[in-house]
């Protein structure tokens, strides 16, 4: 239970640390933890809903992979929602522009999951896409400016993937691209960039922790990005109002890290950023548009 509280609460209102960003500076503040989940779990996914609520789906609860879903309201706390059709952990949840949430991939007792489901908060129901993705977990799922979702990397029981897929949530189409990441990876981070591009950073594979980054172009071409100071997996990537991306934390060769990087897409480079007050890995980070903070 304690582990998941850390994962979830780094995202919204309940974490142990947050950072505030404006055009001139980056700084860190502390805030108190709040109401815990009704069903404590880890390896779940989290996505903001359009009405200010936050959805948490799936994960491992008491040693069992779950499809349970809970929604957090800042004033009313947690409530149960309709569960996913396919229980899963280490999957992705992506908030779509219309307020729905796309859950993709993951793993359960049967192995890697290839089913994609979309949650409609107005109807409290999940709809399964007819077309499946490449079954994997530890991938990233990034909403692009044209409404498509880019699935990158991941792994299954036997291998790490360098594959890229586009998901069209409107027509239910899943397209496997011919282009590939420059290194197979899982446990990496990704974030949208201006012009329909996406940044993929870090991760790990059979060779160890990865320091390279890739920039995915709208048509799927993969260009090299700058190199991190060291290989790292389990980091977060958060787009900011000035179009830069904050990369924070993760695990490297010497354990959990507090290091942060600011990626500048205009110059395709990293800028200095102060580290977090303490190390963390496998966390989530959500930009709060009302006050310009990432939690």
How is this structure best described in words?
By secondary structure, the protein is an all-beta fold. Helices cover 3% and strands 40% of the residues. It contains one helix and 30 strands. It has a four-stranded antiparallel β-sheet with strand order 2-1-30-29, with no helix packed on it. It has a four-stranded antiparallel β-sheet with strand order 3-4-5-6, with no helix packed on it. Strands 7-8-11-12 form a four-stranded antiparallel β-sheet, with no helix packed on it. The longest helix is centred in the first third of the chain and has 8 residues. It is globular. The chain starts with a helix and ends with a strand.
Short description, anyone?
The protein has one helix spanning 2-9, and strands at residues 18-21, 26-29, 45-48, 54-61, 64-73, 77-81, 92-95, 101-104, 107-108, 111-112, 116-120, 125-128, 140-143, 149-152, 164-168, 173-176, 189-193, 197-201, 204-205, 208-209, 213-216, 222-224, 236-239, 245-248, 251-252, 255-256, 260-264, 269-272, 287-288, 293-294.
Number of helices: 1
Structural class: mainly beta
Basic shape: globular
Count of beta strands? 30
Task: List the main descriptive attributes of the protein structure presented here.
about 300 residues, mainly beta, four-stranded antiparallel sheet, 30 strands, globular
Describe how the helices and strands are arranged:
Elements: H1 2-9, E1 18-21, E2 26-29, E3 45-48, E4 54-61, E5 64-73, E6 77-81, E7 92-95, E8 101-104, E9 107-108, E10 111-112, E11 116-120, E12 125-128, E13 140-143, E14 149-152, E15 164-168, E16 173-176, E17 189-193, E18 197-201, E19 204-205, E20 208-209, E21 213-216, E22 222-224, E23 236-239, E24 245-248, E25 251-252, E26 255-256, E27 260-264, E28 269-272, E29 287-288, E30 293-294
Antiparallel strand pairs: 1-2, 1-30, 3-4, 4-5, 5-6, 7-8, 8-11, 9-10, 11-12, 13-14, 14-15, 15-16, 17-18, 18-21, 19-20, 21-22, 23-24, 24-27, 25-26, 27-28, 29-30
